[in-house]
Design a protein that fits this description.
alpha/beta, Rossmann fold, Alpha-Beta Plaits, 7-stranded parallel β-sheet, 12 helices
Length: 390
């Protein structure tokens, strides 16, 4: 039986992937083989030596100590695209609010309570302060054309009648095929911001992207542009955004990541991180994370890992040895030489790398002896060895 620990309330949909005859699932499991998590902070957690995997029911993994997991041979999975539709719908809502001051108008209307029969007249008198442009014919810039960005781009182009220009240097083949032919691909982010009336960002937060929305980028934007940030709050330099809003360079800033600096600022709409807050999204993420964990525990298959390379495997035909190791010179030759010395006949082998981490999979007629596996484990750079048999 595999033991799964849950750190948050996870949808019961996981049990469609983790059958009761093979898995026990509990928030109190003390020595888990895998952990399913949503937003719980894990940086201070100590991991048991038996822990093989962590499945994040969502895309962001800032709550997980990725580097430490890599060094301990713990494969970390996330669920890109599982909540894409939910986030994209909220982005479209944010786009409409960035053009027309809908949120401000709603707040103003609440203040009319108690005016009785005068409400109608007051509405007609005061509504002009909330006038804003239609989206049709305007240009939307989309920076990041992954699962969410592609849905937003298509919806704005096909549904709202907008001109859409996008940029993503790392666009996947799947995302590229999903884009409408009416979406123009730009050669750079600068090209996007120079043309767009509204710009939406769908890029991950890391050391390179932190502060992407800064004074230099804003200076290249059209006067009166609106910014939508539904990725991570730290993508924006708050001081630069506030200065641009105050000067009129920017018309609006809509974000799903409220901060003390941004709450209550004129022309800023702070949504309380509702992007993936739909029952459909939570089920999709939970189902996908559970399936990834199951495939890795049972077969060694790695799909949507943030720290180890993609290695998609079916059930072993006979015996399988999976080796997690550092991506260092001569590693493959050292593994095969050690295997040959121990009399291990490798019938098929796969090796994949992702930055500093690698995975080597060896298929063979029968599992090697414990002595042979222990000898292999002593090689420099080996992190973890797992075995599977039909």
């Amino acid at each position: 039986m595999y033991k799964i620990q849950t750190l948050n309330a996870i949808s019961d949909i996981i049990h469609t992937q983790l059958s009761a005859d093979k898995y026990t699932v509990s928030k109190d499991e003390p020595v888990p083989d895998a952990i399913l998590v949503r937003s719980a902070a894990m940086h201070e957690m100590e991991f048991n030596k038996e822990l093989l995997a962590i499945g994040r029911a969502g895309a962001g993994v800032n709550n997980i100590p990725i580097d430490r997991c890599s060094k301990e041979g713990i494969v970390v999975f996330n669920t890109p695209g599982a909540n894409a539709n939910a986030v994209a719908e909220l982005v479209i809502c944010g786009l409409l609010m960035s053009g027309r001051n809908i949120a401000g108008g709603i707040d103003w209307a609440k203040g009319l309570k108690g005016q009785g029969a005068e409400v109608g007249k007051l509405v007609e008198k005061g509504k002009s302060q909330f006038v804003g442009p239609e989206m049709r014919g305007k240009t939307l810039g989309v920076i990041g054309l992954g699962a969410i960005g592609a849905i937003v781009a298509n919806a704005a182009s096909r549904g709202l009648g907008m001109n859409v220009i996008g940029f993503d240097p790392f666009i996947s083949v799947e995302s590229a095929w999903s884009l409408s032919t009416s979406v123009h691909r730009a050669a750079s982010a600068d090209e996007v911001v120079a043309q767009a009336d509204f710009i939406t960002f769908h890029i991950p937060l890391n050391d390179k992207t932190r502060g992407t929305i800064n004074a230099d980028m804003i200076a290249k934007m059209k006067d009166g542009a609106g910014i939508l940030n539904f990725s991570r709050g730290e993508l924006a330099d708050a001081a630069a955004v506030k200065e641009a809003l105050a000067s009129g360079k920017l018309r609006s800033y809509v974000t799903d990541f409220p901060s003390d600096e941004m709450i209550g600022v004129d022309k800023v709409v702070c949504i309380p991180h509702l992007g993936a807050s739909t029952p459909e999204s939570e089920e999709n993420c939970a189902r996908m994370a559970a399936a990834e964990i199951r495939d890795y525990l049972e077969n060694g298959s790695i799909r949507n890992s943030v720290n180890y390379p993609e290695v998609q495997l079916g059930e072993p035909e006979a015996a399988r040895v999976l080796v997690l190791h550092e991506n260092i010179p001569n590693m493959i030759s050292n593994i095969t030489a050690a295997a040959a010395k121990e009399g291990i006949n490798i019938e098929n082998m796969i090796n994949k790398s992702k930055k500093d981490m690698s995975v080597t999979v060896m298929e063979m007629a029968e599992l090697p002896s414990k002595h042979a596996l222990d000898t292999l484990a002593e090689l420099q750079g080996i992190i973890r060895i797992r075995t599977f048999a039909k």
